[in-house]
Amino acid sequence: MATIINMPRLSDTMEEGTVATWLKNVGDKVAEGDILAEIETDKATMEFESFHEGTLLHIGVAAGQTAPVDVLLAIIGEEGEDITALLDEGKAPKEEIEASQPEEDKVPADEALAIPEGLEIINMARLSDTMEEGTVASWLKQVGDSVEEGDILAEIETDKATMEFESFFSGTLLHIGIGVGETAAVDTLLAIIGPEGTDVSAILAAPPAPKANTSAPQTTPNPQVIPETESVNTAVAEDTKAAPDTGRIMASPLAKKIAKEKGIDLQLVTGTGELGRIVKRDVEQFTPAVAVSPASKQTVFVPSGQEKQEEVPNSQMRKTIAKRLSASKFNAPHYYLSVELDMDAAIDFRKQYNSIPDTKISFNDIVVKAVALALKEHPQVNSQWHEDKMVLNHHVHVGVAIAVEDGLVVPVLRFTNEMNLPQIGSQVKDFASRARSKKLTPQEMDGSTFTVSNLGMFGITEFTSIINQPNSAILSVGTIVQKPVVKEGEIVVGNAMKLTLACDHRTVDGATGAQFLQTLREFIENPIRLVV
Question: The domain spanning residue 276 has which CATH number?
């Protein structure tokens, strides 16, 4: 019996999908597990796997077309099976699919530009649910290079991560529309692939897509030579060795690395390399200017007295952090509750737990597990605010804030309350490692119901955090400190840790937040409850 396959919802925010390519054609045999198509969602282009066996009898959404979720995508059944009735009841009218296309993307037939056969126009893809623009971090192919389907064309920096951008076409890279370091809106022309020697001038002369917003100086002849993070104020001293047309310091990567380690200002170093380029030996042989005081006969350091500024363009991640946290702080009425916990029992518990061979847990693992169990008892704190309703989550997905070079990411531990302590520790370590190398996927950073931010490893005793909306609360975790405490009427040395809960007053009242912290205290101060 034939089976109808509808456009799947491949992400939590997906409302429609575009078929990038079909890997099966009508009449092909399909086995369970075969990849039917590649579908572009609001987050990424993803492989769509078949869960049925049979023959592909019908394709409802052609390659390049966009259709809403649940529109008929394909029909799989027995070869030769009559599917007329299924088409009548399940196929989306052509008008419905066309209606899902944005008005600005529709081009009248008499105005459409004739695209030469075999030529593929590739636009900046929407690689995450919140991506509005992307920055090309690097091109792995250059104009004139041969491209195979599946080759990585470029690395694109989104608001969440730097992601590899794969080609779904084979041919020659004929044009690059967005240079390294340049930022452009989604759907801006990224590249053109086609047969070698194809003239693309007519396409480039057509009305342009939204203009790329480059943060790199327009005078830079080759943005790939010097990363944008090494740009400096062009008003430098006359004796500074810099590129004459950009004001950038000309130095080898190794020379920059050594200078950074030694704290040497490259503007004070004279380059002996080609065209005055600063090389390794120049940095190693550099000696700061000194002078001898006639009165004291002592050597006195003479500062250069030169003011310097460095302009660092805002990354997509930094811009998104600013946008989201500003919206959270000014839209959600924050208030804060703080408690100080006795950590003596937790310290003993961790020591005993880590005595088990091949086992090591951290205090952060203990806090995250305790938070997850407490949230199950207080769904009001595990909630989300919407203008017309409040959603109480009965599942617990704890987001763990991780600092990276460009800012902050919050990967999510799904069903945290069901995980044991070593599983939490292993998952957090994996997230941290991949976050710093920008290998986290957008899906791994979506769906949190509560967030934990821990600065204890930096020696911070107490701090407050801004709520990661749409969550209703976030917990700030400080370091453990030794201090005099009163136990059984005597002053003794104890170990204490401060927690601060930031709550959205629209969803979490003060008493509700206080009750949550009481439950959290019971779990952490009696950690045996975490394993029984």
Answer: 4.10.320.10
Residue 204 CA to residue 198 CA, distance in Å, equals: 13
Identify the residue whose tokens are 């052509």: 94
Angstrom distance (rounded) from CA 293 to CA 290: 10
pLDDT for residue 221: 31
What averages of pLDDT result for each successive group of 10 residues across the chain (532 residues)? 82 76 92 84 73 89 89 90 79 46 45 67 75 87 88 83 79 92 88 89 68 37 31 32 50 76 86 75 78 51 67 79 84 94 96 92 96 96 92 95 88 96 95 89 92 94 93 96 91 95 95 97 96 86
Residues 406, 326 share a domain: yes
Taken as a whole, the chain contains a residue count of 532
Separation of alpha carbons 398 and 236, rounded Å: 48
pLDDT for 58? 92
Catalytic residue among 52, 344, 430, 505: 505
On whether both 181 and 37 belong to a single domain, the answer is no
Q: How buried is residue 503: exposed, middle or buried, by Cβ count under 10 Å (0-12/13-18/19+)?
A: buried
* Closest to 336 in 3D by CA, of 460, 463, 501, 462: 501
Active site residue 505: yes
Asked whether residue 192 is assigned to any structural domain, the reply reads yes
Nearest-CA neighbor of 142 among 132, 153, 133, 134? 153
Look at residue 491 in the predicted model and tell me its pLDDT.
Answer: 93
Task: Based on the residue annotation, tell me whether 394 is a catalytic residue of this protein.
Answer: no
Model pTM score = 0.51
pLDDT of residue 207: 58
Same domain, 81 and 206: no
The helix (H) or strand (E) run that includes residue 74 is: strand 72-77
Token pair in block for residue 437: 């190398």
Q: What angle do CA 332, 336, 337 make, to 5 degrees?
A: 145
CB 499 within 8 A of CB 473: no
User: Residues 383, 461: one domain?
Assistant: yes
- Of 12, 70, 82, 509, the catalytic one is 509
Q: Write out the residue range of the structural domain in which residue 154 sits.
A: 120-214
